[in-house]
């Protein structure tokens, strides 16, 4: 039974890896055009990327594409750095907006989301742990969490620190896919190097799936305890 579970797990990992790789390659033209445009901006390319990311976060739009783009445009190390800065700035902006000008509207919106109401109860007992676990497990979109936490008793310090920590693995995952996809577009390296990169992709996907499972399990236990 255990062997069967492992086989299913790795089959699932391989399937996700192939799907994400195809998605990145499908967006090849878009990434190349964006890269060319950002290069024309010179030193303003990084602030522009961060500004677009923050605006999309405020608008509640999915930011996975921009995480992929960060890996494609800047490579893995710089991509993680710039995307994490942009992500925490966007999350902070949502928190401030939710605490001030849009508080009433957001509370009405959250009242229709039973999943967040369950999380809100758990926050009362295990505040920072819930922030961390919800960031690691995709139980709710980031936009719901960004605005939702602003209407709870979570302190800004805890929100900032554990949002940043919790989002780092997610950002690293998407940025790696973006940088890997760009290397594949250019067909860089020898067959041995390509095999090494594919192994890295599988390991990255496997780690992301495993982390998500563990976080979802821990979050469910925290909600039950609440």
UniProtKB/TrEMBL annotation:
<keyword id="KW-0472">Membrane</keyword>
<feature type="domain" description="VTT">
    <location>
        <begin position="61"/>
        <end position="179"/>
    </location>
</feature>
<feature type="transmembrane region" description="Helical">
    <location>
        <begin position="161"/>
        <end position="182"/>
    </location>
</feature>
<keyword id="KW-1133">Transmembrane helix</keyword>
<protein>
    <recommendedName>
        <fullName>TVP38/TMEM64 family membrane protein</fullName>
    </recommendedName>
</protein>
<comment type="similarity">
    <text>Belongs to the TVP38/TMEM64 family.</text>
</comment>
<feature type="transmembrane region" description="Helical">
    <location>
        <begin position="9"/>
        <end position="32"/>
    </location>
</feature>
<feature type="transmembrane region" description="Helical">
    <location>
        <begin position="44"/>
        <end position="68"/>
    </location>
</feature>
<keyword id="KW-1003">Cell membrane</keyword>
<dbReference type="InterPro" id="IPR032816">
    <property type="entry name" value="VTT_dom"/>
</dbReference>
<feature type="transmembrane region" description="Helical">
    <location>
        <begin position="80"/>
        <end position="98"/>
    </location>
</feature>
<dbReference type="InterPro" id="IPR015414">
    <property type="entry name" value="TMEM64"/>
</dbReference>
<feature type="transmembrane region" description="Helical">
    <location>
        <begin position="194"/>
        <end position="211"/>
    </location>
</feature>
<dbReference type="Pfam" id="PF09335">
    <property type="entry name" value="VTT_dom"/>
</dbReference>
<keyword id="KW-0812">Transmembrane</keyword>
């Amino acid at each position: 039974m255990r062997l069967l579970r492992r086989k299913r797990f790795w089959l699932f990992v391989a399937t996700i890896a192939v799907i994400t790789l195809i998605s990145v390659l499908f967006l090849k033209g878009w990434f190349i055009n964006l890269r060319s445009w950002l290069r024309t901006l010179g030193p303003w390319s990084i602030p522009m990327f961060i500004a677009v990311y923050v605006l999309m976060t405020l608008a509640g739009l999915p930011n996975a594409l921009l995480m992929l783009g960060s890996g494609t445009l800047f490579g893995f190390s710089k991509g993680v750095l710039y995307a994490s800065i942009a992500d925490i700035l966007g999350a902070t902006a949502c928190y401030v907006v939710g605490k001030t000008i849009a508080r009433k509207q957001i509370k009405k919106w959250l009242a229709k989301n039973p999943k967040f109401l369950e999380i809100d109860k758990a926050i009362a007992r295990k505040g920072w742990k819930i922030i961390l676990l919800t960031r690691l497990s995709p139980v709710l979109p980031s936009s719901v969490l960004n605005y939702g936490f602003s209407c709870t008793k979570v302190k800004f310090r805890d929100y900032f620190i554990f949002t940043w920590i919790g989002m780092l693995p997610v950002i690293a995952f998407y940025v790696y896919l973006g940088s890997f996809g760009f290397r594949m577009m250019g067909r860089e390296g020898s067959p041995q190097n390509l095999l090494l990169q594919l192994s890295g992709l599988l390991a990255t996907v496997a780690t992301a799936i495993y982390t998500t499972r563990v976080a979802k399990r821990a979050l469910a236990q925290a909600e039950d305890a609440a």
